[in-house]
Write a sequence for this structure.
């Protein structure tokens, strides 16, 4: 199940407090990790941020090539957005602490997203 | 320090000294101000009696024997610093340029580890025989091409410096609309196009999404610049910085960001 995949990823990276699988076409978060404590409004905002940063496949928010990985960092958190390879509207939205090893996280998060997007 | 400008800068610094301590260490640089290597050289210049100064940034630390306003050598360097073994336990000498360059690289790495750099003074450790061994802070500044009396760079300039060659080109837009660019011209031209055609809408949408956001925000969009790599944007209340970066060096960008935002 998708939530199990997200929980497994969360188990490897406890510093990532929120992991949400979303559909950019409908702008809806479809599933989150079990321990996510964010409200529906906060998740909707996270999904809207994913839409803003990743942009469309043909119309990226900035530049002229498709963006499949984006992040937004403030002083106390890093939000990471990944787009699925086969289904461009499937995205993984994550909120992590600034201490998280982003490279290690991305190496695990990408296959996790592919599994969920592929129907795991 | 003999020239008037440097002397005045030093007097002003001493007069304004408002000491802050973190974990027992005195803070000498915070978020890149002053530039960490300048802060370290100032501490060396302030140390007359022979002492061991331990500079610390987060978990990373460098201990140095200092006396007579001279850096005599490094006695201990934490394992996370590249090239530590090449400099530890060696007395600095003007004839040994490789050692001086290696020490500069050690201090540069230290300065990038954490937004806060502290110093602790302890009993001197043995390093060499001569009391006049090593190099003065002024000589080191000359050798390393460091201006001790320079105005501290802006946070954006600091950020770019800490990003190093992970950034290929940058475009800074100040609040009054003036622009400054650095690096690869083709990358800068791509950033100018973004600045003129896409950035206003992006900023508007982001402000609408997070209207209460007051602190700086870094946004990194991988691969959107095609051959020029990826596009990063830093938003602050003083302006906007756009930069082209290598997505494989994303971690370097984030380390620099943590120093700016921390």
């Amino acid at each position: 199940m998708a939530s199990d995949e997200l929980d497994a990823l969360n188990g490897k990276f406890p510093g990532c407090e929120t992991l949400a699988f979303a559909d950019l076409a409908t702008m809806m978060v479809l599933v989150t990790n079990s321990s996510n404590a964010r409200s529906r409004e906060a998740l909707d905002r996270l999904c809207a941020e994913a839409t803003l940063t990743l942009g469309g496949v043909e119309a990226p928010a900035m530049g002229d090539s498709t963006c499949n990985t984006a992040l937004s960092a403030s002083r106390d958190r890093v939000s990471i957005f990944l787009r699925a390879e086969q289904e461009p509207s499937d995205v993984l939205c994550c909120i992590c602490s600034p201490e998280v090893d982003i490279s290690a996280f991305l190496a695990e998060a990408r296959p996790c997203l592919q599994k969920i997007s592929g129907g795991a | 320090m003999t020239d008037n400008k440097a002397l005045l800068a030093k007097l002003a610094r001493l007069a304004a000294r408002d000491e802050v301590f973190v974990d027992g260490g005195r803070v000498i640089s915070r978020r890149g101000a002053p530039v960490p290597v300048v802060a370290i050289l100032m501490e060396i210049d302030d140390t007359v009696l022979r002492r061991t100064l331990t500079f610390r940034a987060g978990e990373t630390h460098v201990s140095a024997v200092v006396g007579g306003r001279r850096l005599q050598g490094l006695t201990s360097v934490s394992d996370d610093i590249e090239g530590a073994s090449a400099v530890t336990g060696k007395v600095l000498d003007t004839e040994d340029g490789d050692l001086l360059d290696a020490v500069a690289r050690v201090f540069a790495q230290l300065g990038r580890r954490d937004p806060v750099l502290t110093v602790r003074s302890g009993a001197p450790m043995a390093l060499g025989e001569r009391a006049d061994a090593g190099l003065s802070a002024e000589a080191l500044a000359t050798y390393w091409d460091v201006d001790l009396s320079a105005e501290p760079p802006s946070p954006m300039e600091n950020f770019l410096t800490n990003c190093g060659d992970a950034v290929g080109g940058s475009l800074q837009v100040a609040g009054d609309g003036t622009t400054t660019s650095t690096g690869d011209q083709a990358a800068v031209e791509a950033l100018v196009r973004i600045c003129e055609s896409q950035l206003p809408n992006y900023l508007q949408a982001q402000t609408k999404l997070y209207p209460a956001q007051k602190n700086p925000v870094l946004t990194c969009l991988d691969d959107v610049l095609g051959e020029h790599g990826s596009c990063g944007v830093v938003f602050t209340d003083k302006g906007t910085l756009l930069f082209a970066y290598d997505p494989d060096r994303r971690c370097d960008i984030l380390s620099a960001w943590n120093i700016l935002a921390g």
User: Anything to note?
Assistant: The first strand of chain A starts at residue 16 and ends at 23. Residues 58 and 66 of chain A are 7 Å apart (CA to CA). Helices of chain A lie at 2-12, 40-54, 102-117.
